[in-house]
Amino acid sequence: MELARIAIGLPVAAAFPLEIPTVNASKKLTIALTATYSFIVLFPLLPSWLGFLSFGITIGASFAIRAVVKLDKVVASEDGSAPWGSSLIQRLSELAGLFALIGVIVAILFPNIALGETLGNTIQNDQAIIICSGYLGATFFGDLIVSHAVGPLLANASGDESDDAKKLKNAGAHIGWIERAIFFPLFAGGVAAAAAIAFTAKSLVRLPSIRKDSHNMAEYVLVGSMLSALVAMLFAIMTRLALGMSPI
Fold first, then answer.
1. Distances, alpha carbon 163 to alpha carbons 2, 173, 200, in Å
2. What is the DSSP string of 1-64?
3. pLDDT tens, position by position, 51-61
4. What is the rounded distance in angstroms from the CA atom of residue 148 to the CA atom of residue 119?
5. What is the pTM of this model?
């Protein structure tokens, strides 16, 4: 199970920070988050040379993904300024990352105190890290897959004049995160029927906001939603297999 922990965790560590807009905007914050989660995943191997080598490769992979995909998800307003609240969200993200890093350090240096013991036990628990990696992978890494798959459809839908459709398109990434964050635990928990009900309910809410003559936008929403569900299901299957469970 330790091998599964590393095989799933490191790719997720390299990619998922790049799909969070407020983190993506800062290389330092991206490196810090990737390094922190990589350290957590590789904890059983440290301080061996293999652990440090894997750590370095993961950081390098994060830079490579950023360069190839050219991620830049911070949306600017019409006057070129950052969107309202983005600086506040970024500061909160930085603080959250800092507290997470402090928590990891406390767990390592003071394993006998309550906080350190709890965090230390969690970090050393292969099952907990596998589930966490699957969840992060489905929610954020999955956006990397979905956004590039529906890119052409989004370009075709860009001419849509519907205000509701434009709002829906601009919120697409955030809606996708929520979709996969909901679908993953349902699939991973073996309650696929509940996931199907959630998918149907969400479709009934979203599709009426699109004009009947907006074929391209409807296609974008439908394909994006189905891909989100598929990605969440694949990560859930991978997580269940890593935990020694049946795929579904």
1. 49, 17, 24
2. -HHHHHHHHHHHHHHGGGGSHHHHT-HHHHHHHHHHHHHHHTGGGTTSHHHHHHHHHHHHHHHH
3. 899 888 988 88
4. 36
5. 0.70
